[in-house]
Amino acid sequence: MTEQRISRRIAAIAESATLKVDAKAKALQAEGRPVISYAAGEPDFPTPQNIVDAASRAVLDPKNYRYTPAAGLPELREAIAAKTARDSGWAVPASQVIVTNGGKQAVYQSFATIVDAGDEVLLPTPYWTTYPEAVKLAGGVPVDVFAGADQDYLVTVEQLEAARTEKTKVLLFVSPSNPTGAVYSPAQTKAIGEWALEHGIWVIADEIYQNLVYDGVRAVSIVEAVPALTDRTILVNGVAKSYAMTGWRLGWMVGPADVIKAAGNLQSHLSSNVSNISQRAAIEALTGPQDQVEVMRQSFERRRNIIVAELNKIDGVVCPNPEGAFYVYPDVTGLLNRTWGGVTPTTTLELADLILDQAEVAVVPGEAFGPSGYLRLSYALGDEPLLEGVRRLQQLFA
Q1: Which domains, and CATH codes, for the chain?
Q2: How many CB atoms within 10 Å of residue 190?
Q3: Contact between 99 and 274 (Cβ < 8 Å)
Q4: Which residues lie below 8 Å from residue 231, measured CB to CB, with a gap of 6+?
Q5: Residues 79 and 106: beta-carbon distance below 8 Å
Q6: Could you give the CA distance from residue 145 to residue 120 in angstroms, rounded to a whole number?
Q7: DSSP state, 137?
């Protein structure tokens, strides 16, 4: 009998596609190849200096050298509660906040805390590559609800209702979206929230991009749109994107008291407290000056305008104008089944390989986020490589 060396649960997990593409791009760059990577969802800006200074002070303070409460430093939980009230319209007590090692841990713990074996989770698609894996780790069943470029990647209540069954327990709600940058309007958010409330469905809302919005748009939280949902909603957030702190690994989850108590029990065994240095830095991020955050946001908006305009000059590419995050998600079905440099790609997996080989540009294929036919490009990179990469695509597909 052949030994099952890896548990079936873990063996079924797929590697993060975005990190895989980014790692391949960095390996080629290390070999000296001039690869431009749009793969990673990571700001190119340094963490603002006031945040770095707060961390430097924390390193020298012996009180940060010891274990602290698993759920987070009280001062940070208070700061997160204040941000949640300010930006999400939920006046939540600090006791209903857990600080996590990045947003990914918050996502994992949210599903692990409320999903049982066989529970169905509605995933508006395209989705971030980690969501379905986290659902499956919790024993749940991810159910894709797809909205394409023709819908600006925004699912409707009618689509959600068509996917709902007696096993549906959770709706994942992400606005602004990774990978599409799509933002639900206040009316759309309210309609979806009221539908979830009517059917007793839990909502896990990933709001990590809520402050990266453009054209005067505001990403309204689902609990602000439908306050009665607070008893069945978990908010996931973090400092990684808005504050250029991806490597600091600092996220959080906010939710009903019983859910947070249970998630806290899980975290007490899983990881204990987040690094105290990162927590002290996050306190400064949330409570200190926000001027550098606005500078970064404005830079992202400018870059978005450039990349959308330039991609739409390519025959066969349809790129909607995202209102948030820092990604574009063009429909590239018009490039498939055509010959480019002697290669005829039939899927966006093949197209992404062709682009890397022939243009030395790294993009993430749509298969990482749902159906084939799309590419994700992050515009969280410098202005010069941003333009150079798109020009290479224009030349390749001329």
Answers
A1: 8-46+292-396 (3.90.1150.10), 49-287 (3.40.640.10)
A2: 16
A3: yes
A4: 256
A5: no
A6: 12
A7: H
> Sign of torsion, CA 112 118 123 125?
positive
Report the sign of the C-alpha dihedral through residues 254, 259, 265, 270, in that order. Answer: negative
Q: Whole-prediction pTM value?
A: 0.95
The answer to whether 107 and 134 are in contact (CB under 8 A) is yes
Rounded to an integer, what distance in angstroms lies between the CA atom of residue 121 and that of residue 163?
10
Q: What are phi and psi of 97, to 5 degrees?
A: -125, 135
Among left, alpha and beta (phi > 0; psi -120 to 50; other), residue 325 is left
Q: How many residues does the chain have?
A: 398
d(CA 114, CA 89): 23
CB contact at 8 A, 79 and 284: no
- The tokens for 80 are 């997160």
How far apart (Å, rounded) are the C-alpha atoms in residues 376 and 379? Answer: 10
> Phi and psi (nearest 5°) for 321?
-95, 105
- Name the amino acid, one letter, at 349: L
Which residue carries 């990162």 as its tokens? Answer: 278
Burial class, 182, CB count within 10 angstroms (exposed 0-12 / middle 13-18 / buried 19+)? buried
Pairing mode, strands 202-206 and 233-238: parallel
DSSP state of 246: G
Q: How many helices (H) and strands (E) does the chain have?
A: 14, 12
- What 309-314 contacts at long range (C-beta under 8 Å, 24+ apart), as own/partner pairs, is 310/387, 310/390, 310/391, 310/394, 311/377, 311/390, 311/393, 313/394, 314/393, 314/394, 314/397
Q: Cβ distance 185 to 175 under 8 Å? A: no
What does the pLDDT profile of the chain (398 residues) look like in tens digits?
678 889 988 888 877 777 777 788 888 888 988 999 998 888 999 999 999 999 999 999 999 999 999 999 999 999 999 999 999 999 999 999 999 999 999 999 999 999 999 999 999 999 999 999 999 999 999 999 999 999 999 999 999 999 999 999 999 999 999 999 999 999 999 999 999 999 999 999 999 999 999 999 999 999 999 999 999 999 999 999 999 999 999 999 999 999 999 999 999 999 999 999 999 999 999 999 999 999 999 999 999 999 999 999 999 999 999 999 999 999 999 999 999 999 999 999 999 999 999 999 999 999 999 999 999 999 999 899 999 999 999 999 99
The C-alpha atoms of residue 344 and residue 338 are separated, in whole angstroms, by 5
Residue 252, classified by CB atoms within 10 Å of its CB into exposed (0-12), middle (13-18) or buried (19+), is buried
